[in-house]
């Protein structure tokens, strides 16, 4: 019975306009477009982590000067204390990583996408300073990957829209 209901709803799903992002696999418009994006250097340790994550997700990242697009990213990395205890020590921290990024058409210098992405993580402060520092670093590494994923998703959506317009 459930199978029959699911099969009867398939035509409605097709009519809603959903399309696979990476249709065509490695030869598809989005995958080909991502291969033409070069990532500019980003300042700081967080920048190094985000840039590496972006390059990994861009199929190795195009560092060629002949890239069609350049991705410029500026980061804001903040670590703030929360949860003040009675002895004036901090019990919890929040690490926030925000990125403002622009996708620039290298031929014209025109900014074709200007957006932001961000994520945050909570960190428990423990009696071991080493453990706290390790937790802060792990949070930064995880946030870098999350922010890079959000940037790539938004760039992919833009490239898919540009490919659809070009047809």
Brief write-up:
Helices cover 43% and strands 29% of the residues. The protein contains 4 helices and 4 strands; from the N terminus they run ααβαβββα.
Description:
The protein has 167 residues and is an alpha+beta fold. The protein has one domain: Lipoprotein like domain (Double Stranded RNA Binding Domain, 2-Layer Sandwich), CATH 3.30.160.150. It is 43% helix and 29% strand. The chain is built from four helices and four strands. It has helices at 2-15, 29-34, 44-57, 129-166; strands spanning 37-39, 69-84, 90-105, 111-124. Strand 3 (90-105) and strand 4 (111-124) form a beta hairpin. Helix 3 crosses helix 4. The radius of gyration is 21 Å and the shape is flat. The termini are far apart.
Layout of secondary structure:
Elements: H1 2-15, H2 29-34, E1 37-39, H3 44-57, E2 69-84, E3 90-105, E4 111-124, H4 129-166
Parallel strand pairs: 1-2
Antiparallel strand pairs: 2-3, 3-4
Helix pairs in contact: 3-4
């Amino acid at each position: 019975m459930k199978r029959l209901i699911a099969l009867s709803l398939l035509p409605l799903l097709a009519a809603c306009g959903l399309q696979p992002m990476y249709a065509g696999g490695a030869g598809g418009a989005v995958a080909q477009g991502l291969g033409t994006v070069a990532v500019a250097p980003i300042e700081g340790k967080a920048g190094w982590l985000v840039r590496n994550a972006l390059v990994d997700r861009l199929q190795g990242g195009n560092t060629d000067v002949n890239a069609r697009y350049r991705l410029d990213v500026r980061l804001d990395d903040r670590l703030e204390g929360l949860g003040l205890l009675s002895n004036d020590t901090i019990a919890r921290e929040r690490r926030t990583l925000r990125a403002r990024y622009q996708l620039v058409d290298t031929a014209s210098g025109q900014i074709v996408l200007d957006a932001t992405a961000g994520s945050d993580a909570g960190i428990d402060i423990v009696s071991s300073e080493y453990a706290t520092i390790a937790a802060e670093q792990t949070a930064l590494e995880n946030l870098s990957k999350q922010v890079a994923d959000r940037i790539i998703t938004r760039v992919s959506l833009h490239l898919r829209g540009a490919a659809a317009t070009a047809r």
